[in-house]
Amino acid sequence: MHPVLVELLARPVGWLLIAGTLIMVGIGIGVPLFIRSRERAEAAEAARRDAAARQS
User: Fold this and answer.
1) Angle at 19 between CA 18 and CA 20, to 5 degrees
2) Best CA proximity match to 21, nearest among 29, 10, 11
3) Distance between CA atoms of residues 7 and 19, nearest Å
4) d(Cα 42, Cα 51) in Å, to the nearest integer?
5) Are residues 22 and 16 in contact, defined by beta-carbon separation less than 8 angstroms?
6) pLDDT truncated to tens, each residue of the chain (56 aa)?
7) C-alpha dist (Å) from residue 43 to 33, 40, 50
């Protein structure tokens, strides 16, 4: 097997590297998605409040 693959797959440090990379990528993708969903929820809440205020 290629020495780099041995280093990544056969030793604990390689697994930690793979896990850390996945966590960093997950955070990089998850945070913007979370922020977008919260902004949408806040906009919908504001629209509901405005509609309720107009009816009163």
Assistant:
1) 95
2) 29
3) 14
4) 14
5) no
6) 888 888 888 888 888 888 999 999 999 999 999 999 999 999 999 999 999 888 86
7) 15, 5, 10
Q: CA 41 to CA 24: how far, in whole Å? A: 26
Q: How far apart are CA 31 and CA 36, in angstroms?
A: 9
The predicted model scores a pTM of 0.67
Please tell me the total number of residues recorded for the chain in this structure.
Answer: 56
**How is residue 32 written in tokens?**
């913007």
> What DSSP element (H or E) covers 43?
helix 12-55
Tokens encoding 41: 């929820």
